[in-house]
Design brief:
Layout: H1 9-43, H2 49-70, H3 74-80, H4 85-89, H5 93-116, H6 123-142, H7 149-180, H8 198-234, H9 236-239, H10 251-267, H11 271-288, H12 295-317, H13 325-339, H14 347-361, H15 366-375, H16 383-402, H17 409-425, H18 432-461
Length: 464
């Protein structure tokens, strides 16, 4: 990392502390959420605990390391776009450092508290709450942009509806399985004296691996998003635009956009088209006059590309825009390569987050495993219940990752286990105390982390 040579000693220390904090968050995320994947295979005696957590840790690592190639950095960019990153860059680096520490320490604190008491709590909710709290505090002090509320609402809907979806689908799946599968072994409780049949172990082994893989893909990218915020705060010159690419190579794509928007503007008076034309002309000039040593110019280019991307989404959704399908397809062809300059993550950052998540997955799992396996339902977890909950959780998380939405593995799987218990013997089969604790943590997470992150930023702000 030759770029550290120009840093003062104190800056290097602060950067190291920020990197350590984001690694700690992802490590805690790993052992906080391990139970979601391994509880079913442990409590159905399909795998020994040690084997289960090591297996889960490896799949979490693989899920994260392959995520950029399978879905791209969509979830990480969602986290990044929650922050007023451009306004942050207009302030001194001390402001960004204070904001990062406030967010990370808030998220780490709440994750540790809920883990200590064995309460399945969403690391996603924790992080989103901390990001919103930090963004609001930043807006209060600097009168700039606050949290990206459009993105926050989009993520909020995902976090709200995914557990309800998981609960409902598991109930339906359990009813369906009972109708079509006559082998009662699948619906029986594990025997204390023997292992389950091989075919059942194979099913649960597979579903555990799927949840672990997709958890790594989704939750790993949340830590990656935080890491990218840190890099842009300390090293905006290097990381505002992908340093492995020359932005001037994008000039032909920008010229194509200017021509496409110009042609569209002659056929329609759509305000969004006029805005896109103005932005693409400005982007062409920004690239042509770019000083490679000016971080503000690089962030201006990043902002212009982001504006074009948002406008394209608006045009696609607007059925009365007057823009035909052929024009939209032409815009997409030229816009997609441009987004690659801003929506990226260096390989070393992916490996670092993957390692922390995988390592954390192998440690500290027992407290929440007990809650998932024993305290949600009054009856012991059956093979069918474990497989159904994990299969639905894996599918929900995988789809959310594909669409770039952070989702709570904890809430999806916990609600799935609850759904399987209800499908078996009705609502009376749920342990009210545990459900109440999970619901209370779910309700408190956002307000607590919002207030805590805002308060910490106020405190750290005194020392800037």
């Amino acid at each position: 990392m030759d770029f550290l040579e120009s840093f003062s000693g104190i800056t290097v220390v602060l950067l190291a502390l920020c990197l350590l904090a984001v690694c700690a968050f992802e490590f805690i995320n790993g052992f906080h959420d391990t139970a979601n994947a391994v509880a079913t295979v442990i409590y159905t005696k399909s795998l020994k605990p040690v084997h289960a957590v090591v297996y889960s840790g490896i799949l979490n690592f693989l899920g994260m390391t392959t995520s950029l190639y399978l879905i791209g950095p969509k979830v990480a960019m969602g986290i990044l776009k929650l922050m007023p990153i451009n306004d942050m860059m207009a302030q001194s680096s001390g402001v960004g450092i204070a904001l990062i520490f406030a967010i990370l320490l808030s998220a780490i604190f709440w994750n540790l508290i809920t883990w200590y008491f064995g309460i399945p709590c969403s690391s996603s909710h924790t992080l989103i709450g901390a990001l919103i709290g930090g963004g609001l505090a930043f807006q209060y002090f600097y009168k700039g942009a606050g949290p990206n509320w459009e993105k926050a609402i989009e993520i909020g809907k995902s976090l709200l509806f995914s557990p309800l979806f998981g609960f409902a689908v598991v109930v339906i799946l359990m009813i369906f399985l009972r109708m079509v599968i006559k082998n009662k072994v699948l619906f029986s409780e594990p025997s204390e004296d023997s292992k389950p049949p091989f075919w059942i172990r194979a099913i649960l082994f597979t579903t555990c691996g799927l949840v672990s893989f997709f958890h790594g893909q989704n939750d790993g990218q949340k830590g990656l998003g935080l890491l990218l915020v840190i890099l842009m705060t300390f090293l905006p010159l290097k990381f505002a635009i992908d340093p492995s690419k020359d932005i001037k190579d994008a000039t032909p794509k920008v010229e194509n956009l200017v021509a496409t928007y110009s042609a569209a503007a002659t056929k329609t008076d759509n305000i969004e088209i006029a805005k896109c034309l103005e932005t693409s002309v400005k982007l062409k000039e920004q690239i042509a006059t770019l000083d490679p040593k000016d971080s503000k110019q690089k962030f201006a280019i990043r902002k212009s590309i982001g504006t074009l991307s948002k406008s394209y989404d608006v045009l696609v959704k607007d059925k009365e825009s007057g823009v035909n399908v052929a024009t939209l397809e032409a815009i997409q062809v030229d816009l997609k390569p441009l987004k690659a300059y801003t929506d990226y993550a260096p390989l070393w950052t992916v490996l670092m987050i993957s390692f922390c998540l995988g390592l954390g997955t192998m440690i500290g799992w027992k407290r929440i495993v007990v809650t998932i396996g024993e305290k949600i339902g009054k009856t012991h977890l059956t093979y069918a219940q474990g497989a159904s909950a994990e299969l639905v959780a894996a599918a929900t998380i995988g789809l959310s990752s594909y669409y770039g939405l952070p989702v709570s593995t904890t809430h999806v799987l916990s609600s799935g286990i609850a759904g399987s218990m209800v499908a078996a013997k009705g609502v009376k089969n749920l342990q009210k105390g545990t459900i109440s604790n999970i619901a209370l943590a779910w309700v408190l997470t956002l307000p607590v982390t919002i207030l805590l992150a805002a308060a910490l930023f106020f405190l750290f702000h005194l020392f800037i």
